[in-house]
Known about the structure:
By secondary structure, the chain is mainly alpha-helical. The protein has three helices and no strands.
Amino acid sequence: MKKMLSKIIPIAYGAYFNVLSVFSTKTAAKKAFYLFCTPRKGKVLPHQKEFLNNAKKKW
């Protein structure tokens, strides 16, 4: 069930934004921007931590 949900949810979000963009492009862009700018919950994994530490050193 969890695998099926993880496949369906991105498709549902895409369909939602596509339909919304037909009626209001600005609203769809604003909602998509806020959705993709919000960090997901969870801890940073070891391979992600290496990548983030390298990015910190460059700045």
